[in-house]
């Protein structure tokens, strides 16, 4: 069957999102099932259509191979779901979306539906098979969906590999006022490059402002002889240390090279440091010529000479602890936030406090409602990472108050590049941050709503989320708009076609559908022309997949249209109403979650909710929480309102409970059929002689037939019939009668 993702007549551009309930894939399973594990970087992408479904083909440059073929070339081709096709944008919330420039560790498989696909690799278990590095302020973490490692060392150890990263890590003495740390900026081996990069971090044990400093690094001539030179590569990452810097070539006589850092004139160019803030000051390159050693380099006798200034810009020849910085310079403080807001619904979060405007913000700097682009609010996303709203979502920003829409779409990957926002980073329950001086996305000064961090009013609770997307990516200040259910029909209900399911799967699906129908009165129904519900193949790590189209109406409204629901055919399902055994996955629970996606709900990070992304065998979740209900009611109410493209959803006017039995006209009972339900044998007694008996399955297909019976009694052994509902058609000389039986 050809899959049509885009059916909106009036829609300018469309995208499609797939959702499916996930299970947490153990690390050992990812390692075992992957043909290749590598550190790599996405260098280019192109769009492909496979069986009418859009994909992105990613070229990944191999930085380091951790598992797999030693004959591997320097590049691999990796297929991911979704992309841009004919101007239409397609995304998947549970499948991995990569962007050019993405770096990390990829777990790759050539298996597709159990068959080797020689053309492309795929990421094993989708988002769970890609780890990216995140600098959390002190250490580098490797994070993936449901999984996190503190540093590469622990990650490599878990892989059973020795971590042989070049370089060293040095920390200054703890009693110094200013502490520093140097570590390699990349993982190149000494053999592979003579140009090595290092990151320099600093922090202070007391609040200070730092104007200029000079780091002198000794190197050991026993390793490098006279052959070390300093390259000109010195990238400054600190927000304020961007005015002047230099990297001196080495002094051969003393074996020292020197990094000098000078900031702008005070007070506009201040570095405010304290013991909780580690600042990535710069990355510097060291070029080594004609080296012939294999061991990592190291540095000794390093010292950091810095000058400290007070808030007036006066040089202080002081010792630690003697300089106190006034808070107004760059010290936001949250004193109040709303405690509960949904995401993607354009609901507005109000944050009150002080110091929200950096003193470097000049009149006229206004930028999309912000004082300037150094000011940001960040939300905790579903993976515990930070996500920042789009520019147009800020409604107000003063020194004491911020009003901002809670996003389902925001900036990620330490970037404000517009190619770096995605559907998968959804605002979720957790801390919020007010960040200032944030031009590389890492807050150099901030306050959070974490009770253990600063004075505040606690975490923001996000009960539900619905899809949103920018109205116009070419606009100056793009904003996310919430979506609603859509159809081209003049009025509509959303119907599912469950004909392909087994009788017991049908009943479980109908129970889940009834739960939603009766809870929020949503007009979701069953018919033979509806969205196909079936068992089939879904990516590894998923129990089910619900693709959803999201399009733009000309007036900026968003419209969503569920396409189908596919349950994983290889999963061992439990269809009954009893609790699932520990080795089976409850079909009704997963159906309830998938129908939630079809209603337009995204995930939350509250594991009580039906819309929490992960589940597993033996888990029964068949009751909607208040959060799930609030989300369903919100989108249903929005969908009942007319818009300028498409039409509104019809309200539900019939009984919310769809019967779970098979719909079949059953005539009057002049015959006695027993037992029912039954497991072994079927008995029929009739006043007239029975001529023939036919067994129909729920598809209406004859599966058994006995003719020339000519008896008032009929006994049939049915122990070989699979469990489910059947229709028995009984023929006599004068009547044809249909009766329903349930085989246990
Ligand atoms: Zn889901």
**Broad CATH class of the domain at 14-158:** Mainly Beta
Helix content: under 10%
Bound molecules: zinc ion
Class from secondary-structure proportions: mainly beta
Which band does the percent of strand residues land in? 35-45%
Q: Write down how many β-strands occur, each being a DSSP E stretch of 2 or more residues.
A: 50
Low-confidence stretches: 1-20, 163-175, 188-193, 220-234, 236-243, 263-270, 289-304, 318-329, 662-669
Q: What would CATH call the architecture of the domain at 14-158?
A: Beta Barrel
Question: Over the alpha carbons, how many angstroms does the gyration radius reach?
Answer: 32 Å
Oligomer: single chain
Averaged pLDDT, please?
73
Q: How many distinct helices? A: 6
Q: What is the fold named in CATH at topology level of the domain at 14-158?
A: OB fold (Dihydrolipoamide Acetyltransferase, E2P)
């Amino acid at each position: 069957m050809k899959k049509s993702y885009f059916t909106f007549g009036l829609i300018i551009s469309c995208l499609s999102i797939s959702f499916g309930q996930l299970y947490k894939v153990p690390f050992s399973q990812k390692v075992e099932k992957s043909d290749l594990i590598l550190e790599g970087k996405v260098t280019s992408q192109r769009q492909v259509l496979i069986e009418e479904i859009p994909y992105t083909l990613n070229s990944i440059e191999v930085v380091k191979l951790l598992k797999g073929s030693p004959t591997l070339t320097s590049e691999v081709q990796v297929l991911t779901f979704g992309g841009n096709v004919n101007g239409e944008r397609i995304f998947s919330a549970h499948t991995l979306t990569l962007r050019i420039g993405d770096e990390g560790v990829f777990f790759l498989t050539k298996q597709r539906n159990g068959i080797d696909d020689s053309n492309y690799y795929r990421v094993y278990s989708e988002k769970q098979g890609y780890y990216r590095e995140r600098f959390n302020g002190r250490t580098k973490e490797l994070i993936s969906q449901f999984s996190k490692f503190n540093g590469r060392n622990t990650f490599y150890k878990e892989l059973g590999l020795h971590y042989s990263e070049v370089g060293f890590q040095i920390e200054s003495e703890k009693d110094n006022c200013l502490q520093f740390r140097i570590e390699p900026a990349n993982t190149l081996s000494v053999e592979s490059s003579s140009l090595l990069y290092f990151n320099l971090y600093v922090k202070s044990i007391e609040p200070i402002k730092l104007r200029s400093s000079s780091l002198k690094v000794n190197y050991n001539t026993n390793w490098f002889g006279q052959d070390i030179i300093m390259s000109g590569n010195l990238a400054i990452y600190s927000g304020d240390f961007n005015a002047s810097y230099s990297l001196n070539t080495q002094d051969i006589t003393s074996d020292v090279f020197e990094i000098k850092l000078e900031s702008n004139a005070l007070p506009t160019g201040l570095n405010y440091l304290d013991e909780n803030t580690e600042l990535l000051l710069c990355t510097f390159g060291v070029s080594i010529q004609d080296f012939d050693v294999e061991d990592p380099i190291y540095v000794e006798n390093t010292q950091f000479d810095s000058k400290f200034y007070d808030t007036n810009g006066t040089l202080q020849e002081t010792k630690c602890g003697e300089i106190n910085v006034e808070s107004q310079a760059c010290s936001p403080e949250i004193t109040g936030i709303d405690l509960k807001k949904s995401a993607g619904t354009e609901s507005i979060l109000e944050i009150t406090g002080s110091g929200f405007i950096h003193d470097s913000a000049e009149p006229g700097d206004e930028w999309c409602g912000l004082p300037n682009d150094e000011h940001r609010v960040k939300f905790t996303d579903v993976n515990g990472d930070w996500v920042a709203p789009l520019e147009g979502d800020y409604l107000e920003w003063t020194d004491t108050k911020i009003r901002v829409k809670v996003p389902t779409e925001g900036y990620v990957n330490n970037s404000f590049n517009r190619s770096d926002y995605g559907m998968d980073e959804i605002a979720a329950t957790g801390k919020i941050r007010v960040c200032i001086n944030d031009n590389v996305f890492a807050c150099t000064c901030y306050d959070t709503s974490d009770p253990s961090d600063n004075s505040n009013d606690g975490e923001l609770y996000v009960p539900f989320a619905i899809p949103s997307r920018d109205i116009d990516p070419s606009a100056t200040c793009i904003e996310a708009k919430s979506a609603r259910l859509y159809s081209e029909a003049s009025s509509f209900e959303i119907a599912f076609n469950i004909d392909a399911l087994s009788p017991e799967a049908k009943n479980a699906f109908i129970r889940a559908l009834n739960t939603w129908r009766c809870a929020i009165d949503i007009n979701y129904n069953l018919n033979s022309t509806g969205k196909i519900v079936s068992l089939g193949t879904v990516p590894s790590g998923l129990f089910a997949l619900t693709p959803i189209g999201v399009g733009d109406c000309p007036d900026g409204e968003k419209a969503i249209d569920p396409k189908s629901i596919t349950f994983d055919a290889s999963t061992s399902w439990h269809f009954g109403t009893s609790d699932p055994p520990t080795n089976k996955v409850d079909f009704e629970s997963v159906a309830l979650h998938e129908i939630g996606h079809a209603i337009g709900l995204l995930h939350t990070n509250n594991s009580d909710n039906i819309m929490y992304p992960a589940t597993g065998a033996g888990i029964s979740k068949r009751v909607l929480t208040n959060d799930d209900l609030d989300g369903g009611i919100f989108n249903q109410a929005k969908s009942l309102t007319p818009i300028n493209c498409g039409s509104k959803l019809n309200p539900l006017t019939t009984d919310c409970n769809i019967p779970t039995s098979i719909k079949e006209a059953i005539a009057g009972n002049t015959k006695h059929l027993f037992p029912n339900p039954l497991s072994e044998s079927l008995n029929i007694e009739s006043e007239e002689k029975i001529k023939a008996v036919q067994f129909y399955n729920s598809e209406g297909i004859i599966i058994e037939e006995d003719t020339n019976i000519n008896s008032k009694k009929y006994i049939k052994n049915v122990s070989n019939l699979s469990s489910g509902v059947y229709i028995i058609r009984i023929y006599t000389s004068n009547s044809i009668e249909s009766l329903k039986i349930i085989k246990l």
